[in-house]
Amino acid sequence: xxxxxxxxxxxxxxxxxxxxSLIFSLLSVAGMYAALGADFLAxxxxxxYVGAIVVVILFAVMMSEDIYRGRLFDNFKRxxxxxxxxxxxxxxxxxxxxxxxxxxxxxNFDRLPTTKAMGLAxxxxxxxxxxxxxxxxxxxxxxxxxxxxxxFHHGDHEEDQA
Amino acid sequence: MLQEFGNALSxxxxxxxxxxxxxxxxxxxxxxYPHAGKxxxxxxxxxxxxSAYVMFNNRxxxxxxxxxVFDVEVALLFPxxxxxxxxxxxxxxxxxxxxxxxxxxxxxxxxxxxxxxxxDIDWIRDAEDRRRGxxxxxxxxxxxxx
Amino acid sequence: MKTGFDGVFGVNSPLFIFSALAAVxxxxxxxxxLGGFCTFIERRLAAGFQERIGPNxxxxxxxxxxxxxxxxxxxxxxxxxxxxxxxxxxxxxxLVLVGSLGAFATIPFTNNVLGADLDIGxxxxxxxxxxxxxxxxxxxxxxxxxxxxxxxxxxxxxxxxFEIPLGIAILSAITVTGTLSMxxxxxxxxxxxxxxxxxxxIHNPFLFINFFVYFIAxxxxxxxxxxxxxxxxxxxVSGFNTEFSGFRYALYMLGEFCDIILFAGLGTAVxxxxxxxxxxxxxxxxxxxxxxxxxVSPLVQTGLMGGVFLAKMASIIFVVMWLRWTLPRLRVxxxxxxxxxxxxxxxxxxxxxxxxxxWLFKGQSILQLVWAWTGVN
Lengths: 162, 146, 377
Hints:
Chain A is mostly helical. Chain A is 69% helix and 0% strand.
């Protein structure tokens, strides 16, 4: 189910259908996380990706007027750079896949539950990273609202220079 | 643990099957007399002009983005808060957990306060009225017409 | 792992093997009709509040009303407007149902009847709750109706923004419980003598306020008064439900009522102590009774616990319905202001307060402190 939805996301001409297939591909990623024993990640994936990011994407899609007019396979020249990049990334991923030692997974299956371990990591070794994440989130927040701020067209008087 | 997820999955699958199954089964019992009037979009009796896909105000998008950030924050705080009680009871590391999690929270709270002051989380009206310098009714906070 | 009906019939019962499947079918077979039943209850309660009699003709005292309603809606013609996006139109109500019914797996009805005892129980329930917003948004979009779209976008914005105070209120309860597993959360709220801290809502004053934050946020999640702008717009014959007729509309309404039941269930589990009663520990009831010479079967125990849980859930649902006929509706900007300017700061503050309490008093509740102070045992 995951591959089918992913293919639909990339190639479906109707962008809304692409966004909806995104829901299914993210759901299947969550399922894969659960199957691998990462319970917290599965639920976090659901909350963050399916719950929040898809909503953002859908809002963005719904607000862009011209987005339905574009046809995907109009102009093949547009595919040049994306194709190059994706081949590069794909080769990197494949190399990673071939190098990993997959046999260790079955033995580690019983190291559940993961939430506590994750919590310990976040306040232990990765505490600084945790704080950095907060700052990055803050940057994203402020940046997004500054960019998406609605404009006022009635003779704005001087705003504070912040 | 995996079995638990399997159970949860079966709940989801069953819930997903229910609507199409019900609709499908009763399709044989349903009348079907489509005619132009029924197939048109509803617009309180008038005939709709133009497509429904018009451009909307970007405050929806703003709310969605702010929600996204806070959702990530809440999701990340869950494992940390889980540890908090055990850290307190076992006596070690409670300060560390507390400080770390609340500084995380505080940083994002700063963002919220910034937006509040700038009027970004108002649903447009207040900020715009403030910019126009319109007087505000002291008691109810509503903008006066003058 | 507590799954399905372990322990209800006793481990040696031959029904043990089918416990998981049975849990799924029973719980869903319970939840969905309960949602339908709620429509009937709502009409009767509404009638009571408005000093009239509600539906009372179909069946004894009108109890079969929901069946006639469902039958009628199923047999209605399934019109889909010409310009509507058929695939998504069909998909959207299912998303709402998946979100609300799927999370039923984690509601701890009793000690043993729990669809899926995930270690991240409450987190999973929250995760599925956020899928509901997608159902609303996509349904509105696929209707090809300007007002549906507007109502749906507002609805999605509302559902989505109130998930944050909801999450933070639950987070503050987690500081007290120390575990995300639903079973653990309820067990931690046992009566003092059994080692628990009793119900989370009176654990400390911050949690008390956060319960109300949770309650208000769940009202907004389900599009209930005073936040029913997306739904009320449909009463004004516009809004995201407009183009949905017949059974599809029923699916949306069922989804909404199941959402209410879900949040009521989560609220009782996390804040009101689930199936715990004061003075007795229902899970261990058979011990003292066995000493007293009475043999209590696990089935009776389960029934008792389930009954307590359902009673608490029912009281929350009653208040939800009561509010519908009492409070006026909030305007959309007031609604957003409530969420971002009031609920979020309040819940943050209470999260801080609850964490401080846990730190200062080593996780003990007010009752435990009083108990220890009076020097009993």
